[in-house]
Amino acid sequence: MRLILLLFCLVMAVSAVQAQVVEQDSLALVAFYASTDGANWQNSTNWLTGPVSTWHGVTIADDRVSALRFDDNGLRGVVPGAIGQLDDLTVLQLPNNALLELPAAIGQLSHLRELDLRGNHLRTLPDELNTLTALRTLVLDNNPLHGDRLSSLAGLTDLRRFSITRMYLCKPAGARIDQWPFAFGWLWDDLNVCEPTLSEQELQAEPCRGSALHFASNRQRIYFRRNVTTLTYENELILAENVAMLNACPDMDMRIEGIGAHHERNPLRLAEQRVEIVKQFYLDRGIAPDRLSTHARTRRACGKKFAPISRSVGTLPLSRASEK
Questions:
Q1: From CA 130, how far away is CA 120, in angstroms rounded?
Q2: 178 exposure class (CB count in 10 Å sphere: 0-12, 13-18, 19+)
Q3: Separation of alpha carbons 272 and 295, rounded Å
Q4: At 147, which helix (H) or strand (E)?
Q5: What CATH number is attached to the domain comprising 96?
Q6: Partners of residue 256 on adjacent β-strands
Q7: How far apart are alpha carbons 108 and 86 in whole angstroms?
Q8: 22 and 88: one domain?
Q9: Same structural domain for residues 6 and 121?
Q10: How far apart are the C-alpha atoms of 266 and 79, rounded to whole Å?
Q11: Is 121 in the same domain as 222?
Q12: Are β-strands 58-61 and 64-69 bridged in parallel, bridged antiparallel, or unpaired?
């Protein structure tokens, strides 16, 4: 029934806007709406009902979609491959949402000049980002990216703004600053000199060392909406990975660190509740209570840019010899 309803909405939307935007763009937008939980967006004004030019967050130029802007709008899930059909897109702003993945098709956006993905749940970047040679602005702050994710971006020759703060990225392996086509040498001072990635043989010999590096590099942080303490499906997927690693590594303990944002109602209490909910998730799946320690605190968010990380729970690996 839901599929029939979605198809009906699709037909109605396309019929209503064919004169205002090319059909491939309207179809791509409907796919974007469906894949990012559009029914539960904070603002979905006129989506699937009015002309595309009136849809919230959409900018039209010469019958093509030229920009998508959705800051803190409750987008969840993955950006669909259909985004590649918006091949006149110049601006894609999706900050402070709960997006998990970018498709390879993003490499088809040959006119894209600005890409803002800060404050999402991205853990990998598609290699196809390297083909976006028109890109001038790339903002990736506050995503659980870790390790050497920058080498694949060396083809972005026209970048003017590049921001990667508050993550656990490594300096590109073996890369000198002057080998990069953009002059952002100051960024290297903020990047970690990470331990080299373990080889397959090393992982087999020391699987728990690999797990500890995984925890330490991205902290397996989960994020909450303002004044909310319930776990989302995406949160549970991340926590389930932690459970699997803890089961495989009996000598690894964990400190659960919760943050309440200063602008929330009773932020310290929210942080404590979030920590307890995460702890209970582990307990319910057989993790012994003596392997878990907790800490809750508050944090002032300096505007929307840092708001998501100020409403989160992270994890930190501890050896049995570490203090809890």
A1: 20
A2: exposed
A3: 8
A4: strand 146-147
A5: 3.80.10.10
A6: 294, 315
A7: 8
A8: yes
A9: yes
A10: 34
A11: no
A12: antiparallel
| Domain hosting residue 220, numbered range | 200-319
- DSSP codes of every residue in 232-274: PHHHHHHHHHHHHHHHH-TTEEEEEEEEEETTSSSHHHHHHHH
The model carries a pTM of: 0.60
- Domain final residue pick, 190, 223, 250: 190
CATH number for the domain including 264? 3.30.1330.60
Q: Name the stretches of the chain with pLDDT < 70.
A: 1-19, 146-152, 154, 166-220, 300-310, 318-324
The total of structural domains in the chain comes to 2
Residue-wise pLDDT for 272-323, tens only, equals 999 999 999 999 999 999 999 998 888 755 444 444 456 778 777 765 544 4
Residues in the chain: 324
What totals of helices (H) and strands (E) does the chain contain, helices first?
6, 14
Q: Kindly give, in sequence order, each residue whose CB lies less than 8 Å from that of residue 193, ignoring residues fewer than 6 positions away.
A: 170, 171
- Whether 81 and 14 map to the same domain: the answer is yes
- Paired tokens of 313: 């729970």
Domain identity same for 8 and 98: yes
268 and 306 part of one domain: yes
Closest residue by Cα to residue 316 from 195, 166, 214, 170: 214
Q: Are residues 137 and 163 in the same domain?
A: yes
Q: Is residue 324 part of a domain?
A: no
CB 93 within 8 A of CB 116: yes
Of the residues 159, 190, 221, the one at which a domain ends: 190
Pair of tokens at residue 55: 């849809």
- Alpha-helical (H) ranges within the chain are 2-17, 23-35, 200-205, 207-218, 233-248, 267-284
Question: Which pair of structure tokens corresponds to residue 273?
Answer: 């509740």
Contact 68, 92 (CB under 8 A): yes
